[in-house]
Input
Amino acid sequence: MGTEHPTGTDLWAGVDVGTQSLRVVLSDEHGTVVGRGAGPLSSVRVGDRHEQDPEQWWRVLGVASRQALRDAESTGTQPDRRVRAIAICATSGTFLLADDTGHAQTPGLMYDDARAAAGFDADRWRALDHPAQPTWPLPRLAWLIQHGPPELRQGLASGRLGLRHCGDHLAERLAGHRVDTDWSHALKTGYDAGKQAWLVAPMEYLGLPDRALPEVVRPGSTIARVSAYGAEHTGFAAGTPIRAGMTDGCAAQIAAGALASGSWNSVLGTTLVVKGVTDQPVDDPAGVVYNHRHPDHGWLPGGASSVGAGVLERWFPGADHDVRDAAAARFEPAGGVLYPLAGHGERFPFLRPDATAFESGRFTDDDDRYAATLQAVAYVEKLIYAHLSRLGATVGGRHYITGGATRSRYWNQLRADILGVTLELPATTEPAFGMAVLAAAGDGLLSDTAHRMIRRGTPIPPRPTAGDRFLSAYAAFVDALTARGWIDEDLARHALESA
Output
């Protein structure tokens, strides 16, 4: 919790809509978090489908916002300190279809919903100048148009229905009318961040009229104000500005302060997201690296893997992670290697919709397998940086780590050892805090606001010689991917040489 500051200090609200929870953070202008609220979110997974209920997003937003406001009052925050603006982040690629009144006409299709993978034609999307992945919004929208009820197709064609990203939908509910989206959430939906315009060819291919897509603005721009209804639901004052947000990966990058050229941030939550800052976009013929536009200048290249901490809950349900971590430390390296996918398909550092989890070697027991899972996520992270450096990106700058998994001190240290670099754990790692910083920046320079609000964190240097223990296991991991044809010989060679 935060500490009391003089009366009159402004507060800023950040909202993060994740896979398992929605979180609200209130920060003052000094970067002190004075209030937090959260509520659980549930998902429906059936085969390749992954959906959430947009009404649940709205309901939990109301609960978490009021909880954050009460929390701020309990820490001694003066009653005249008002929330001056709100910004929302959500999982990249999560969308729904809604009508002009803001009412959802479909469930929320989650970022890893893979229903479009069957029959996915990558060449077709490349020909449309949109080298998409099957879990990106437009391939899934094409699936809905082909397989969904006729009223959805008719509604889209007439412009009566439109695509909304998760954050857009909540902003519309808060404001009571349609709002613009930001160029971060729009990227995977066919927005050309370089030309700052929607791509024409894929929209014509889908038969989408202009009205079916929102206008796109710079993150931090004021897109609406909280209505009386939104105020009653959340406790935020009517008239409070709502500012365009960014995706959760970008929000975590802001929270880390990884905004200078050459810096990188890894978000280890349910999945693993790696993003950096470069002066020019990183061109990836394989299409797994995509480039967000920096709100100030330059680019935020990176990608999202399907591995992450979410697999621990599936493979080791109910585990006491502190106990497991202590046991895992006895297996460095583990008795075998594995690829820790909870479902089907990988997106980064290679694109394989058909990828599934595998194991090789012999594990002594479940503790050994748990250790192998932690190590494998770090191996994927190491391979991601090898892929980025092979494409010409400079990866030797400062490395930050954020996300819920950073609560594990052992895993943080293990990642530093395997990566062979000092990792910086920011003072506040939450994407919701990153959105509070963006809300405070508004139309100004985000880097300046971040410099004022974000505090230096804790450095985690690699243990001397510890990384050497994992070299042969990492080589076996790379060899296993090469043998399956998931990565090519050039990346395998570069990965082992750079190790």
Summary: DSSP finds 16 helices and 24 strands in the chain.
